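for the writeup, i need someone to sanity check this before i put it in the appendix. the sequnce is what the collaborator sent (i think, or maybe the updated version? ugh). structure was predicted straight from it, no edits. if anything looks off just tell me and ill rerun, i have time this weekend
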Amino acid sequence: MALNFAKGTTFMFLTGMGIAGNTFVLVSYIYVFRGSEKKPIHLILIQLALTNILMLFTKGTPRTIASFGLRNLLGDVGCKIVVYLERVARGLSICTTSLLTVVQAITISPRGSRWRRLEPRSAWHLLPLLLFCWILNSLIGMNLPFFIKNTNSVNTSEFSESDNYCYFIPENWIIRSIFIALMVLRDAVFQGVMGLASGHMVFLLHKHHQHVLHLQTSKLLHRTPAEVKAAKSVFLLMLCFLFFYWADCCVSLCSVFSLLKDYVSVSAHEFLIIGYAIVSPFLLIHRDGYLVESCRAH
């Protein structure tokens, strides 16, 4: 009981902090986007903040409530909605971060390069891609509502001492395999694209560094183009995503293949799921000047 209370308090604090940070980022970039020059990166950052808020509301908030022993607040319908939206938000997170990395890689590319030809002419040209991300992840998670119930509607004593609030009914292994394969394919494709774009950014940043080393004037030595600073910010954001994603995968695999599913491992897994949504807005706030400066200068 004491462990659940401590876990619930921690989740409440981290979730609240993450929602506050993402709300600040969301409002800030909506304000910037309302200006005369609407840049593609603004629209992507707005979706990223919305995705993070959705993740925190669907994962952090219900987990906090359940940890305090208030599982009755979510019925069967509530569980179906919350878990489905959580799955959509997790998919949107990787798609949006991948798109952000690609757009920033295009932005810092030389004007005559092939990458630069892919540059969207306006922010509105990204709307079909953002809509595609929503549709794709909505379809990949469409099987979940049919196999989820609230733990209070399941006749088992397994959940009497648990802080779980939803129960997954065993589904047909063929259907389960199909949707797992779709999720794995989605993650592999978007992380592959993210890797290519980040590799291109690293190459361009290295070229810029080599160019700076040849500068003779010390005054110019410390001046860095806004686009380069923004690229470094996006690169750090991508590394942050990959850290939480693969840490989550490692803990999940350890839990699956281990007979000891202890409380600490389960809790660590749950914290890792919302880790990126909590940390990323503060990384953006810390580096915000670089991103905004780049968008206005470009």
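Residues 108 and 227 are 6 Å apart (CA to CA). The chain has ten helices and two strands.
thx in advance!!
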